Amino acid sequence: MARARSVAIIGGGIGGLTVANALKQIGMSVSLYERAPYFIPTVGAAFGLQPNGQISLAHIGFKDQIEKIVNPIHKWQVINENCEVVAKTDELREFGKRFGYFMGGALRAELVDILKEPLEKSGILYYSHNMTDIKQDKDGVTISFDNEKQQKTVRVDMVIGADGIRSTVVKQIFPQTAPPIYIKKNIFYGMIDNIDEQTSINPIVREKNTITQNFDHGEFLTYPAGDKGQCMWAVLYSADTPPSTNDDAEWTKMNNQHELNQCLAKFRQSHPVHECAAATDKQRLLHFGLYYRQHRNDGWHRNRICLLGDSCHATLPYVGQGANMAIEDAISLATCLEKNNFEMEPAFQEYYKKRFNRTKRVVNISRYMGLFYHSENPIIRSIKLPVISWLINSGMMLKSLEKEMYGNCPVPIEQKNIVK
Ligand SMILES: Cc1cc2nc3c(=O)[nH]c(=O)nc-3n(C[C@H](O)[C@H](O)[C@H](O)COP(=O)(O)OP(=O)(O)OC[C@H]3O[C@@H](n4cnc5c(N)ncnc54)[C@H](O)[C@@H]3O)c2cc1C
Predict the structure, then answer these.
(1) Ligand 1 mean position to 227 CA, how many Å?
(2) Secondary element (H or E) of residue 6
(3) Which end of the chain is more exposed for a tag (fewer CB within 10 A), N or C?
């Protein structure tokens, strides 16, 4: 059976960086190729680095560094259009304490810095390498890269496609794959520095360690991210077309003031989205369309090439788990390779078996939550807030979070009475 010692990872997103570290630690000869000249595309954006992602990163030795960049979330509240709290739970703090990992917000750039450092030090992270072609035979894989300066080929035993939702690796090994699906929703996504100083923003939204949501028009969301008082806010709204005509521009700087004005006009003047937008530097406001991929159910590998993260199961952002799933994939794939003595076929099969149901559930839940939040059906609109309030106030939401984030995390943790 074919055994792998050298591996090339295509794509230096959260998934690619995590798997590069994990495989390096178990003794593989790793090289990571990122098409961007440096990690600018994600600078300025935040994301929910959830307990399952943190536990998985701690498993490969990043616990202390991660703790420093995660702003823990203790409280969850839902507000109405007048910024009055209509549902809340303070239980997230206890919940986090029980397991030693809190739900939290982090800056993407800070996580990337942590993950790239060991790779840069070892000289195995190659920027400006755009993978264009990949061919495999019975002895190995030949990868071609193209950029302004050079054309280059690399020969390795194994390849991991971690190149995101518009994966070139997928196009090469599964040419029949349908393109990502645009759900006719866009998002404005802003970062506010030093939220404490932004006294024009309603204090309810500025509450520390708190995630705030509103569902009057799609979804409005804020949470703290980073350790210097930064706060992210986003509004997810219905649209006919995505903001950019360039398919590759996933993180597009805001350049459509007209669409922003139209989006904001739907909200009452008392809604905090206006205050958040006014307090955000234009350079820190992103605008993009929401896409997902049909979950791959025909395997995530072909011979020596295997996929992870958004390349095989890109999810919508409604449950904030896409990057966390990519992190989990990375740890799971490394574990399967080591357990199978680096024999690719059994390792890839085991990895797919372990990851399929979990990722499919996340993709589906996120999709259905999106449909529910944005529904214009009058009956659904009328029950939306009572249902969400009941889920939060009754503790049902916490129970399901506990199950997904701790109980089903692929890395077992010490826990008391965990919901399985
Ligand atoms: C609005 C929004 C909010 C989100 N919020 C959250 C959240 O709160 N929590 C969460 O967990 N997830 C969130 N996500 C999802 C998360 O961003 C993705 O799921 C995650 O980034 C996927 O990681 P990845 O490594 O698979 O791919 P990516 O992060 O997309 O990385 C792919 C990398 O591959 C590189 N690449 C692409 N093609 C090539 C090529 N041909 N050659 C070389 N390199 C290439 C790209 O430049 C990129 O660096 C959100 C997504 C969106 C859209």
Answers:
(1) 22
(2) strand 6-10
(3) C
Residue 259: its H or E element: helix 257-265
Please, are residues 34 and 127 in contact by the beta-carbon 8 Å criterion?
Answer: yes
> Ligand 1, residues 129, 153, 163: which to mutate, most atoms within 8 A of Cβ?
163
Residue-wise pLDDT tens digits, 219-271: 999 999 987 889 999 999 999 999 865 444 444 555 678 889 999 999 999 99
Q: Rounded to an integer, what distance in angstroms lies between the CA atom of residue 80 and that of residue 90? A: 18
Check if the beta carbon of residue 22 is closer than 8 Å to that of residue 330. Answer: yes
| Upper half-sphere CA count for residue 194 (Cβ side, 13 Å) | 5
Lookup result for tokens 């006719």: 184
Distance CA(188)–CA(199), nearest Å, equals 22
The C-alpha atoms of residue 22 and residue 316 are separated, in whole angstroms, by: 26
Other CB atoms within a 10 A radius of the CB of residue 261 amount to: 10
At 228 the pLDDT is 82
Return the best residue to mutate from 35, 313, 366 for the ligand 1 pocket (most ligand atoms within 8 A of CB).
Answer: 35
**Total Cβ atoms within 10 A of residue 292:** 22
236 Cβ contact list (under 8 Å, min separation 6): 185, 186, 187, 218, 219, 220, 221, 290, 317, 318, 370, 373, 374
- Look at ligand 1, atom 14, and give the residue with the nearest C-alpha: 322
Q: How far is the CA of 413 from the centre of ligand 1 (A)?
A: 26
Kindly list the structural domains of the chain, giving each domain's residue range(s) and its CATH number in brackets, ordered by start: 6-179+293-412 (3.50.50.60)
Read off the pLDDT band of 94 (50, 70, 90). confident
Helix segments in 27-107, DSSP class H: 51-59, 63-69, 92-99
**Closest ligand 1 atom, CA of 53?**
11
Cβ 33 under 6 angstroms from ligand 1: yes
